[in-house]
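anyone seen this seq b4? input:
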Amino acid sequence: MKELITILTEQMAAAFEAAGYDGAYGAVRISDRPDLCEYQCNGAMAAAKQYHKAPIVIAGEVAEQCAAKSGGAFTAEAVKPGFLNLTVDPHFLASYIAEMASGKDALIPQASCPKKIIVDYGGPNVAKPLHVGHLRAAVIGESIKRICRAVGHEVLGDIHLGDWGLQIGLVITELRHRRPDLPYFAEGVSEYPDEAPFTVTELEEIYPTASARSKEDEAYREEALAATHDLQEGRPGYRALWKKILEVSVADLKKNYERLDVHFDLWKSESDAQPYIPGVISELERQGLARVDQGALVVDVSEESDKKEMPPCIIRKSDGASLYSTTDIATIVERMKLFSPDEIIYVVDKRQGMHFEQVFRVVRKAGIVKPETELYFAGFGTMNGKDGKPFKTRDGGVMRLESLLNEIEEEMQLKIRDNKNVRAEDAEDTAAKVALAAVKYGDLSNQASKDYVFDTDKFTSFEGNTGPYILYTLVRIKSILEKAEEGDRPYLNGPSILSPSGAEEKNLMLSLTDFAPAVLSAYEELAPHRLCAYIYKVSNDFNRFYHETKILSEADAAKRRSYLALLDLVKTVLERSIDLLGFTAPDHM
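predicted toks r here
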């Protein structure tokens, strides 16, 4: 259905034209002063210069035409120095809400030209446990993927595993030191055991041990570099061991991402792009884009319009090794070949901004992507502790993501077990859902590009702008609807919404009309925090309405059913919104 603000703009444009002015000045927006009006139009201020009239004169003439041209949708008042204050007609608003309630499956406008989009997010390295630094990529990327899908695009989420770098050589080297008898290190072996020579717990201990030693022992580091080289050159035993590392790591990653309610469509990795690298280098050389600089192969990507220095993109180091930039370019080649996407979105730490700008410029210069193919870098900031530094454990170490989730779930279980509304057998599942909402909403409610403080006490609170508060509001609505008498159930079939009887009800109705614009804004800006801000407002408006209104005890049956139909729509809007953010609500809290 058409957005309310679009209807108001169209009718205001008609009023401008009827008054003898360009209809383009009729743009309507939500009021900056909700204490004065609900919507506003500032077109008269802009038109004054073109028509050489005082803004208040233009506004007055347009206001006179609004009664005839607004179709009863709103009233307009001209106020100095030339603003048009709009108030939506209650009867029109009720009919609009009734239409929303009747067509709940079509609340989100669908793209007129659907695109194929790949969202690159996650990006963990194998052989390492997920830590809190992996949270933002997973949470933001999952939400962006869901939002893009919701507006009608075909979307593939790709984890893009790091499985081809030095960390693999370090694990191989440490294993060789510990268990030199393993068949993976012997010559002439053609078959290897089906079972991995380590558990995920052992693997997660092996890597940090090897990494720490490589920083102190140069010979050990050189050994690891040689093992990495041999792996990449195809040494059979190392390839077999690498597959076991991948197998064990991916199984553990899937378990942890499942707990986060994060789901990837593609489990592609750096190694998948390696076969494309020779062709990438050959093509860049053939086109004359690559040049040798101090033994390294580079592509100049600077442009005259650059306001800061843009260094060349290194494609191959002087020792012949490829880099992340080479792999990322090759990955785009692979994606274009396999999927031919219209758009690729990278959800990555914002400190990688220059790297991806270089990569994007190389693939455009080389014609690897079509001119119309869109490449977006959705960089995110750092998740910090209360001290303003990257989030750590109490003893200063890097916190595992699993540990963080455990801590918050335990906190929630303590709070929920004190609540008699939740059965003891449901407490664990309820705590897990509320904890996930606390973590995800706590992250997503912040603008992605900015650093933020992860405040456990704040994020787990049932009051204020938090995930638990949103869920508590939704559970309260579900409880009211469940308690409704059987005779009031017809509100679900062709709901009859009456005109709002008070300011709180009207504000709630107006908030509901902003659902589609909120989703579209979150999509267009790749900004889940827009959706968080929206549902926080809806929740506040509902709770004000709830505290001022007798819903189930309302004596007038028509009014009571109208209230229930309105609540059912609020429930739908909140449930769809939190699904787009990546979490769900329990039945009781």
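Residues 4-88 form a domain with the Gyrase A; domain 2 fold (CATH 3.30.1360.70). The two ends are 34 Å apart (CA to CA). kinda curious what u guys think
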